[in-house]
Amino acid sequence: MYFNFLRMELFRLLKRKSTFIILGVLLALTIFTNWFYCSVNIGMTVQTGDAIEEYDQAFEAGYDAGTQMVDPEEDYQMFGRGLGMYGNASVSELYNYNSSSGNVILLLAIWVALFIGDIYLSSSQKVYLNSNANKGAWIGAKYTVVALYTTAMNLLLWPMVLLSSALFCGDVKLSFDFNFFVYFLVINFLCIAFSVIIAALNDITRKRVPGLVIGIILSQGLVSLLFAVLDILARVIKLDLGEFQIASLSIANRLAVFNLSTPSKDFCWGVTVGAIYIAISLFFVVLTAKKKDVV
Amino acid sequence: MGEYLLETNNLVKAYSKDLALNGVSIHIEKGAIYGLIGRNGAGKTTLMRIICGLARPTEGTVNPIGFANNKDFYKNISAVIESPALYPYLNAYDNLKLKCLAYGIDRPGYIEEKLKIVGLNGVKKKVSQYSLGMKQRLAIALALVGDPEFLLLDEPINGLDPQAIVEVRNLFERLNKENGITILISSHILEELAKVATQFAIIDKGQILEELTREELLTKGTNEVIVGCSDVDLAESALKSSGFTSIRKEGKESIVIGDSNADVASINKILIEKSISINSIGTKSEGIEDYYLRLTSRKV
Fold first, then answer.
1. For chain B, which domains are there?
2. Of A11, A123, A131, the CB nearest to B53
3. Candidate from A15, A16, A133 with C-beta closest to B74
4. What ipTM goes with this model?
């Protein structure tokens, strides 16, 4: 029964316009983001004499402090008229910047809420769930499709980054190292956890809107902000948290801070956080399905 | 009495403090079109939801006598409960395709066959552009996927125009006669239900007031003879002595005889023999609607 439902949900996925529109929007956002990262020259906004002097001093200070600048004059010129701030980044690094920008989870939130919420909007549960017996199989199929689409989105982001890199970022620098592979697996898992939370909100409330609204809020890092405030409060009341940060419990926060050189210890913590969210979400989905009648 | 397909035993469904169903027992014969009659909020939808497994009863059981077991029962039933549950951005074919995939049906021409039954074969436009009648017909086609032996239809003629009502009614009769599908239909449009159903249950405030066959309903609901005469007391005693039992006086000059064997000629003869002058005599047929109203108002 599970595979029948899986085929059904995959068919529905492919028949939905939003499935492809969301990917189109991701492509547009990726192109825009990378154009901004690679082509927009922030130094160009510095025009007045005083400001130039301040930047001169800043560069000199950086040079004196032993930064990577080989030739201060050449580096200064690049800052003034050359490529943007990530102009020399590799595709993997650009992928990291795009992932951490929040575009992917924002679009995922919208897509998941539309895809799962659709079931409740059309009341189609009534058609497929005679006897309540097939609920488990359908839940499994729905969440499999959500995970598959999330993974597809993260995979498709790579050629999108590659394309925009070729368009705006000068030489295309490919690098397939192990760090990128691990980074991709971790952020994909976190994105799946995020999608599962949104899908669960739809399944628990059995409406489309709550998942959509809360999904957008979560993707914009407002929960990270809340956790950060809690962090500050914990310090104010002198609660000894050691090195632990409450903000690290937020998926959006993890996605924003992880990069190619994140220590494996932090990756492990991120995966643990994601797994906990998935487990809690699925627990409440199953509980709701068991306790409540089909609507 | 035919073979039963399904019976329910004292079904109770409570929502917080309200009882949507209160001890409902019905018996559906195999091959019947079972009409569930009741006003809005009487408990029809709740009963249907429980029968097809979408809701759990607080108490009582559903006993699918005509099926090998519960699994076999749920495999062989299909339902259209409340509004048609369709994906508006898909066309008719794709809506049916989804259910075929879920049921593992991969037979060529199967979907077209179901659409043809409801007259929607070849309709390419999306469901969002359908009229309510087309949606109802598509919902019925969707319910026919899996070739169910038992079909539950909740208010299937709601919102349909007269032409569509006739079409849908003919469809039910065809499905019942040609395909041998037992159908449970709920409706508050009583006269329409009376045209197709072979068994009836009258439900009000979560309770079954009466369960009867079409023949029983016809017997109960018709053949009242109304006599206008000068002496109703004398007429009453004359008719009682002739064996009529269901007699009631209406005012000082009318008497109503409700016995099933009451006919104008025999009553006329009895009264003339007793020298009772008759001002008027005629029959009054009571339809299902009158019967329903009488039954539910009696309860009130």
1. 4-218 (3.40.50.300), 223-284 (3.30.70.100)
2. A131
3. A133
4. 0.74
